[in-house]
Specification:
This protein has 304 residues and is mainly alpha-helical. It has one domain: ABC transporter involved in vitamin B12 uptake, BtuC, CATH 1.10.3470. The chain contains 14 helices and no strands. Helix 3 runs antiparallel to helix 4 and helix 6 packs antiparallel against helix 11. The longest helix is centred in the N-terminal third of the chain and has 27 residues. It starts with a helix and ends in a 13-residue tail after the last helix.
């Protein structure tokens, strides 16, 4: 029973962690992209469509990442090149993604998908408890942890990461030093789009291999909340993703055990937890302001 619960938590947390890790890099560069939900749902429909069309879940995952990048480029062009408002553009991107994915996925509704295979190491995966939990996951679960480690290393140990953080903290000073603020932010937004697309593809290829309209069900918004919850630190984002994953799974097991709460209340638990966490974080304004990139959400226009 415990093994089944842990496995379910892992699958529920992985799309959140992938999307949150990407958005963390985007916000570290000083860009606030509220279109994570739209990029995730586009990744989900593209991942499912490519998987069904080619018969390859791995190509489906790649297709989801590409779809996320393409949608993120639209956001980057509008906000970085045309200098439109980032908040309004992000909200528009979410609405655009939800609408376009519904149109693109109409013909795929009801079709059976092909599930991404999990790792199977003879003699190890079959071990009790540890085998399936640690060595029996699919490639995207391991990729999510690699991404957390890689982003943490990149931001704190590399020159390129230092430049990205400098752009996010003070884009005018970074520009004065000769760094391409727009170029850095374009790359960060594209990375965030790829990660959100992977998170969406995970839902339609690994989590539940099917396509239904709006199947992300608000996970993009939870990923955005995770970035604030983590104070823009990758390892905290991983912890937060698994906490939210546990809350998501709680509703299903509560119903299975016959706990006398309305199903609607149990279904809203992940979003209620999101609101509670954000309220709790807002109470510690000093820590929040200390970790928040100073140029977050601020448009940059280079000197002519």
């Amino acid at each position: 029973m415990l093994e089944a619960i842990i496995l379910t938590i892992i699958t529920a947390a992985t799309p959140l962690l992938l999307a949150a890790t990407g958005e963390l890099v985007v916000e570290k560069s000083g860009v606030l992209n509220l279109g994570v939900e739209g990029m995730m749902v586009m990744g989900a429909v593209a991942g499912f469509a490519v998987t069904v069309s080619t018969g390859s879940p791995l190509l489906g995952i790649l297709g989801g990442a590409v779809a996320g990048v393409l949608v993120s480029l639209l956001f980057a062009f509008v906000t970085l090149t045309l200098v439109a408002n980032q908040v309004a553009s992000g909200l528009a991107l979410t609405l655009f993604g939800l609408g376009l994915s519904g149109l693109m996925g109409e013909s795929f509704v009801g079709q059976p998908g092909i599930k991404l295979a999990s790792l199977d190491i003879p003699g190890i995966t079959s071990l009790p408890f540890v085998g399936k939990v640690l060595f029996g996951q699919d490639i995207l679960v391991y990729l999510s942890f690699v991404a957390v480690f890689g982003v943490s290393w990149f931001l704190n140990r590399t020159r390129a990461g230092l430049i990205l953080r400098a752009v996010g903290d003070n884009h005018s000073s970074a520009h004065a030093l000769g760094y391409s603020v727009i170029g850095v932010r374009y790359l960060a937004v594209m990375f965030g789009g790829a990660m959100a697309g992977l998170g969406g593809a995970y839902l339609s290829v690994a989590y539940t291999p099917l396509w239904v309209e709006n199947m992300t069900a608000g996970r993009g918004w939870i990923a955005l909340a995770l970035v604030v919850f983590a104070s823009w630190m990758p390892w905290r984002a991983a912890i937060g993703a698994y906490l939210f994953g546990a809350v998501t799974v709680l509703q299903f097991h509560a119903q299975a055990f016959g706990i006398g709460f309305p199903s609607q209340f149990l279904a809203m638990l992940p979003y209620l937890a999101t609101v509670i966490v954000l309220v709790a974080i807002s109470g510690n304004r000093r820590a929040t302001l200390f970790n928040t990139p100073s140029s977050l959400g601020k448009s940059f226009v280079p000197d002519r």
